[in-house]
């Protein structure tokens, strides 16, 4: 059936299934106007036809001239019932051709608007991907920071000194280091969906096995923690690959800020719930409960996610058009142009600054509860709860910085300038507030300095962490793997060095090293970084 019609005041209004509705004149009885006046009228209507004998069709007619006048015309449509065969063409879809806002009647005769598509199906698919990545990073840091709390009763039970604790904390980074570049290559060639699913499953299993390994002995614990790092190591390159394909440039900073705030809220969740679980059920319960959550996420991810908008059969055309606006649909990556990547000064600026940034970040991530316990005199529960404040500040600041950065870009400021401003805040803010820790006399002020340090650090999500997609969108996974390898080396050396420094020095020495690296990073970033695409 190629055409149907609706009778209005004895005239037939044709409805074609294969072409948009034509402009029609409304029935005279429904409109009062002065004779001889010019009357321009445009008929918009959305209709759903049910092929049942005696059905009613309600048509919404919206007048022009800004009068917002509404005509509602009712007509009986009678036809014989029939079935549409499976061979009916794809174009035989009323919803796609005519729209779906329809006035229907319930059993009592009351009218209501029937929307054929539920709101959750109209939710932008790119933001579904972003939210799922956010939740993966939430789990990522929950499973990572639980050791920073559990290490206190574990070191007491197994009689570990500060050097051994530093070795255990850094063993995570051994595996994390191995999969940075490999994860980026894998994500850019086979797709971020599979890589991120692998990572979550892998680190969740390693988390559950941690108490078993600890009871078997220190070497087994070191191996399991390194295995956990292998799984978490592919997460950031895979996420970066996914967002480079799904998120348009105008939404890049805020989407990355939201995903990385998942890490911060994961730290909040882990630090808040770990003391409760340890006191109630013992330290092994932290690893068992947190690790099991990965299975729930994996089921949702495999059902909802796709590596690219081109692979999603349910992606709406208007969203696809938005994603690919001013972008060329690129072929999948088959080879990595290593020479081109490694010959660019902005790439080396990104790698160096990632190292400088992560030295301070990972020290605070792994050693903050110990600092609160040993220096500020907080007990286990207080250490966990006070550690929450800096991470909450980071979650807020990351999203604030993302919105500011995207707003500046949309108002015409160059991406290069925005990246430099945001990263300068991300370096100089922590350097200033860490320098104040040696001058404060109260625990409350120390916690405040930590919170402000971490809060300003979070502006880096709109600085260097957004820069991979700016300068090399096709190879963003590989590029993040390269720079994050340097960041992981900072975590390995920084976490282990902190344990050594504390045995031979003080916390002031620990903070001075971090401050120096923040200042070096500020200079290098402002001299050599760019927000322009430099690698095709």
From TrEMBL:
CDD domains: MFS_SLC17A9_like (cd17380). GO terms for molecular function: phosphate transmembrane transporter activity. It is a multi-pass membrane protein. Residues 129-533 form the Major facilitator superfamily (MFS) profile domain. It comes from the Eukaryota. Pfam families: MFS_1 (PF07690). It is found in: Membrane; Plastid, Chloroplast. Signal peptide: none annotated. GO terms for cellular component: chloroplast; plastid membrane. Keywords: Chloroplast, Membrane, Plastid, Transit peptide, Transmembrane, Transmembrane helix. Belongs to the major facilitator superfamily. Phosphate:H(+) symporter (TC 2.A.1.9) family. Belongs to the major facilitator superfamily. Sodium/anion cotransporter (TC 2.A.1.14) family. This is Major facilitator superfamily (MFS) profile domain-containing protein. It comes from Lactuca saligna (Willowleaf lettuce).
């Amino acid at each position: 059936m190629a055409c149907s019609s609706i009778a209005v005041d004895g005239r037939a209004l044709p409805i074609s299934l294969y072409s948009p509705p034509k402009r029609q004149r409304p029935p005279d009885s429904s409109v009062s106007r002065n004779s001889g006046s010019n009357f321009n009228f445009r008929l918009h209507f959305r209709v759903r036809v049910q092929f049942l004998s005696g059905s009613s069709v309600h048509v919404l007619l919206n007048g022009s001239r800004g009068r917002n006048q509404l005509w509602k015309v009712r007509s009986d449509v009678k036809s014989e019932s029939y079935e549409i065969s499976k061979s009916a063409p794809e174009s035989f879809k009323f919803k796609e051709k005519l729209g779906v806002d329809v006035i229907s009647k319930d059993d009592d005769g009351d009218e209501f608007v029937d929307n054929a598509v539920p709101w959750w199906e109209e939710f932008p698919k790119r933001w579904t991907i972003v939210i799922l990545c956010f939740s993966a990073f939430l789990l990522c840091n929950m499973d990572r920071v639980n050791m920073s709390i559990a290490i206190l009763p574990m070191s007491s039970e197994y009689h570990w000194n500060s050097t051994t604790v530093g070795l255990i904390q850094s063993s995570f980074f051994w595996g994390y280091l191995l999969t940075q570049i490999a994860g980026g290559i894998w994500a850019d060639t086979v797709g971020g969906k599979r890589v991120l699913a692998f990572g979550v499953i892998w680190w969740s299993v390693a988390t559950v096995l941690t108490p078993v390994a600890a009871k078997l002995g220190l070497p087994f614990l070191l191996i399991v923690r390194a295995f956990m790092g292998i799984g978490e190591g592919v997460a950031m390159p895979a996420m970066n690959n996914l967002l480079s394909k799904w998120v348009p440039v105008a939404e890049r900073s805020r989407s990355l800020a939201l995903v990385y705030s998942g890490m911060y809220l994961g730290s909040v969740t882990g630090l808040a719930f770990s003391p409760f679980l340890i006191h109630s059920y013992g330290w092994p319960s932290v690893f068992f409960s947190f690790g099991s959550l990965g299975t729930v996420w994996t089921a949702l991810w495999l059902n909802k996610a796709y590596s690219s908008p081109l692979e999603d059969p349910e992606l709406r055309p208007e969203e696809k058009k938005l994603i690919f606006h001013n972008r060329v649909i690129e072929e999948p990556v088959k080879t990595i142009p290593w020479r081109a990547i490694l010959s660019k000064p902005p790439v080396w600026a990104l790698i160096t600054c990632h190292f400088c940034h992560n030295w301070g970040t990972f020290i605070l991530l792994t050693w903050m509860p110990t600092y609160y316990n040993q220096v500020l005199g907080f007990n286990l529960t207080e250490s966990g709860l006070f550690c929450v404040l800096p991470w909450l500040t980071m979650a807020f600041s990351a999203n604030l910085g993302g919105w500011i950065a995207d707003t500046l870009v949309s108002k015409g400021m160059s991406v290069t300038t925005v990246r430099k401003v945001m990263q300068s805040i991300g370096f100089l803010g922590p350097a200033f507030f860490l320098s104040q820790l040696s001058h404060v006399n109260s625990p409350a002020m120390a916690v405040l300095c930590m919170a402000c340090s971490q809060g300003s650090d979070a502006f880096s999500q709109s600085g260097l962490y957004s820069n991979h997609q700016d300068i090399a969108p096709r190879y963003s996974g590989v590029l993040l793997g390269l720079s994050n390898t340097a960041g992981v080396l900072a975590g390995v050396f920084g976490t282990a060095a902190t344990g050594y420094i504390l045995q031979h020095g003080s916390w002031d020495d620990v903070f001075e090293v971090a401050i120096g690296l923040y200042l070096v990073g500020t200079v290098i970033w402002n001299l050599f970084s760019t927000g322009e695409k430099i690698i095709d």
